[in-house]
Design goal:
It is a single chain. With 305 residues, the chain is α/β, with parallel strands linked by helices. The protein has a single domain, classed as Spore Coat Polysaccharide Biosynthesis Protein SpsA, Chain A. The chain contains twelve helices and 13 strands. A nine-stranded mixed beta sheet has the order 5-4-1-6-11-8-12-10-9. A two-stranded antiparallel sheet has the order 2-3. The protein has a two-stranded antiparallel sheet with strand order 7-13. α7 packs across α8. The protein starts with a strand and ends with a helix.
Length: 305
Amino acid sequence: MDVVKAVIPAAGLGTRFLPYTKSVPKEMLPLINKPAIQYIIEECLKSHVNNFLMITSKSKFALENHFDSNLELELLLKDTNKEQLLSGIKKIIRTSNFTYIRQPEPLGLGHAVSMAKHSIGKEYFGVLLPDDIIVSQQPGLDQLIKIARQEKASVIAVQEVPQNYVSSYGVIAIKKQTTPKLFQVSHLVEKPKTQDAPSNLAIIGRYVLSHKIFHSIDEVSNYATGEIQLTDAISHMAQHGEKVFAYKVQGTRYDTGTPLGWIKATIGTALQNPHYAPYIKEFLSELDTPESFMFNNNKNITKTL
């Protein structure tokens, strides 16, 4: 089973980050010196996936520009011996294929994924939500691909969450536990009440799905009264003869979908960067005594990194 395509739903308005997202897509929020969306693409490339179907909306031209050449800038950097500043993104552009598909209106994650139907053949494909950054030695998507090959089935990423948080997630109901990290799914419940949650295993933004998901999206669309949920379509698939597994992805997950989550992701990724980590650790230790930091250590504020 080869997985070579990834669907990246990036059409959301990012209202939690207004007014920033009035002109800049939330996927372009920086984590150190790269936009969040670039971490997603790099995870795919490390998982040997290099064909990207990005679902966008009319305000997302910055995404297309980021993953395209800028000859004027490249020539300027060449003249100043700073070509290495673009080496990472140039490698992505050189080794990747991008297709941008416009979602005309926000009708839910299931609808966004369905926009890629005509670009997917009879194959399995990845789905990555840009809000979820997963930092791990083995890329999160690659972990799922290996399980999909092993089980010859669709697989979704999950993590354990405290019981009082389950109502913020889609949650799996377990049909059978195969290993400590692997579960066969009977169905999914989108944002259940705490007392109704079938488990504390919450779905996070990584999936490897069979092309049969498109039939299930069509089926659930027939009775959907609001947004078309991907969880409903995956449940439909699991309940109509298709095996679906859930896997506890290993690594550190950051949810950049809220300002607080983005702040945590910025600090967390900086602490994992060998160049910035010592400075961030020093800064955080100084925050224990904020008054003395602000008034007695002003030199630290302008320290060059």
